[in-house]
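Per reviewer request, we include the raw input and output of the structure prediction for the construct analysed in the revised manuscript.
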Amino acid sequence: MRWYVVQTHALAENKALFHLKRQGFDAYLPRYLKSRRHARKTDWVPAPLFPRYMFLRMDTARSRWLNIRSTIGVSNLVCHGNIPAPIPDKIIEDIRKRESETGLIDIRREAQFNKGDVIQITDGPLSERVGLFECESDEERVFILLDLLGREVRVKVPVETITEFQ
């Protein structure tokens, strides 16, 4: 039994997972909590860790793996030529180690800054500006307070464009 990668149709990971399991395959779709903003409301929803991809464990000598390509929701099986390309078991083990008791993978990093820390923007139109860290917005952006035109303005910037002020 080895692990293989299945490519799904767009937004059809759950459908493919259901139908592959229904056929008796050991399928695995790692998920994480993603922030979703809708109608001025932000909530957290489970989303695939690798959009359009999932993992499948099978024995190619015994499984009818050619049927996988015609499974509802499946686009393709990742192959080298006409033979499915196995991936190391360690990859799946490492992903599963990061799962919480709810089965979701926590990809949020620990906050690098605390509220009130003095930071500097290193890139973009506000480069070299110094401000105060306010809070994280989501996985990619943070809010900072900048003194612009004589008043404090709350600005959202990518987290990779800020650093601690020296």
